[in-house]
Amino acid sequence: MSPSRPILLQGGRVIDPSRDVDDPADVLIQDGKIAAVGRGIGTPDGAIVRNVTGHVVTPGLVDLHVHLREPGNEDEETVASGARAAAAGGFTAICAMPNTDPVADNQAAVGFIVRQSGRAGLTRVHPVGAVSIGQKGERLAEFGEMVSAGAVAVSDDGKPIVSSHLMRTALEYARTFNIPVADHCEEPTLASSGVMHEGLVSTRLGLKGIPSAAEEIMVARNVLLAELTGGHVHLCHMSARGSVAIIREAKDRGIRVTAEVTPHHLTLTDYACEDYNTQAKMNPPLREAADVAALRGALKDGVIDCIASDHAPHAYDEKEAAFDDAPFGVVGLETAFAVANTELVESGLFTLPELIRRMSTDPARVFHLSGGTLAPDAVADVAVFDITAKWSVDPATFHSKSHNTPFAGRALTGRAVLTIVAGTIAHEL
Amino acid sequence: MSANSILGKDLTGLEHMTPEQIRLMLDTAEPFKEVSERPIKKVPALRGKTIVNLFFEASTRTRISFEFAEKRLSADTVNVAATGSSVSKGETLVDTARNLEAMRIDMVVIRHGSSGAAEFLGNRIASNVINAGDGKHEHPTQALLDLLTIRDKHGKIAGLKVCLVGDVLHSRVARSNIWGLSKLGAEVAVCGPWTLLPRGIAELGVSVFGRVEEAIEWGADVLNVLRLQLERMEKGFIPSLREYYRVFGVTPERLERAAKPITIMHPGPMNRGVEIDSRVADGPHSVILDQVTNGVAVRMAVLYLLAGGRAELADAAKRGAGGNE
Fold this sequence. Notes:
The complex is a heterodimer of chains A (about 425) and B (about 325). Helices cover about 30% and strands about 25% of the residues of chain A. Chain A is an alpha/beta fold. The longest helix of chain A is centred in the middle third of the chain and has 18 residues, at about 210-230. Chain A is globular, with a radius of gyration of 20 Å. Chain B has a 5-stranded parallel beta sheet, with helices on both faces. In chain B, strands 2-1-3-4 form a 4-stranded parallel beta sheet. In chain B, about 40% of the residues lie in helices and about 15% in strands. In chain B, helix 4 links the parallel strand 3 (about 105-110) and strand 4 (about 130-135). Chain B is α/β, with parallel strands linked by helices and about 325 residues long. The radius of gyration of chain B is 19 Å and the shape is globular. Chain B starts with 18 loop residues before the first helix and ends in a 7-residue tail after the last helix. Chains A and B meet through helix 6 of A and helix 4 of B.
């Protein structure tokens, strides 16, 4: 990275969960690193100065779970457009799942993502390598070479790891490289061709349901295999209250398990699928109010470690179909913070520092990423939020190439006004 | 492009219909029954209207019933079947709809394998849309003809006990019947193997029985026996057709336990010797063929009302006075 001008953020409320800081302070960024945090910092020569009085300065947000569609479906998203959307959402690092076309199951494919990220020069895009060749669930991919090329974790996300033997060997083998194995927890014979949560709404709509047990069974299996192997399992996008209970018990027993939850699973229920609204079709499905309450509680007390968006872009006409025929998934990078801030902080359930911890410090810890802190000498991945800004979600204004969101038209509070990656401004409102 | 009728633009299901709207459809069907009994079975109520019967799933009975209803109202009709059409060449539902609309049609009758397909279409085209069965969601005209048949037989619907027997999980007929019967004041139950009863069904306000005997003890006035799709066995919901008949078949032996004669209905086509015994299907309390007859009248009523026909003109319409607004 070429030397960039120093940046001085003056007068903001600095929240740094990594050091339990929540104080008014200036933040000075030099040479791509946090140079100083404190009051009355002098302005270095040539510095870019931003008065952020009334705003909140935090470590940049970290998203462990996004789908960029490059290579293969660049009309829906590219590494660059995803990085741009991420920067606009206050994210300074995102982790790209390997279910592209072709699958990122080798060092060349993983290295391609790293290079595209570098070319974009915005939010850092960390590749996640596939667990199995072609995500076919048969033979292990070359974890070692993928890690050397930049992979920060392995996952067959989009598909569950069906074979318990493969999951076991993946967890064992991943220990060598100290990376987590992230699993999309879904028992395929139970979930088979289901399109939404199995319950009253699916019965009324006549849609095939996916019972919560389809997730819970795999959560339990993964916990048991993590215990057996000593490996680190990361459970993607938790949706069911039963999963929460299993994770809680596993953590109490010291098993190496971490978990994430999406903004939509924290805020919406299966009623969002009414009228066959394909923007609410996602996998795992939106479940019931009791699940939402359990997920919120688990995120609050750390049983679930972090929020991840599961940003899943789809072309507009793909969602313009009968519910059965529409693809799963919603975009989330540009709404994640505001949805969480509105629903969790404004409602009084979380403090703002608690939310920032779950969206920055903790996800960085889970995948061993830089960032998530404003400690001196740390990489200068920083976000500034106007937490009072009221705005209404208009998908047409997204930087993402895709607009498939269940939050269109929703009034939200809070948005990123400045995002700095490695000491360089990646987004400014 | 008719203005919204008293039923709204489309008939996609009974869940969101009011009891008054349902009664109106049944009452409007009454005068249309007589049209089919005449030597010249035709009234000019829908003369000049163009109707497309868009069937993405195979259907004989429902399609023919709609076609008769349309022709007896003097509409111009076109049948589009999924096989051999652009649909099988990968055209999307929305493109199919737009192309039909571009040919300036007035109504679409759609059957589709995906739940919500009729609503999807109705939200995207200006023509009236009538749901002739969408996935496992609703089949409103079937439920209406069932209601009409029950009312003919018992003189009322409110207060009757009606049980839907069999594969409720996959049945759009069951869902539409539950809504229609409940809204008109009947007590509704469902009965079948637990593998074929959907989660949360009791929350719709119906009683749930695991055996036919329990439904009979409950005091059912009507058993509406649902068709068992043979593929359910292949998919493992039931072990065999033989056992299904033994445990869940509606047989004279089971019906003998009833304190009173039970009216027997079936939406067809029947699997004799599987969900229903022939002696029951052909027996004195079966109204299965009355259902078929009423199907034409109910569909005439729905078409007529959606086209903007006024209820009080239904009687005049059948005499040939027209009735379109």
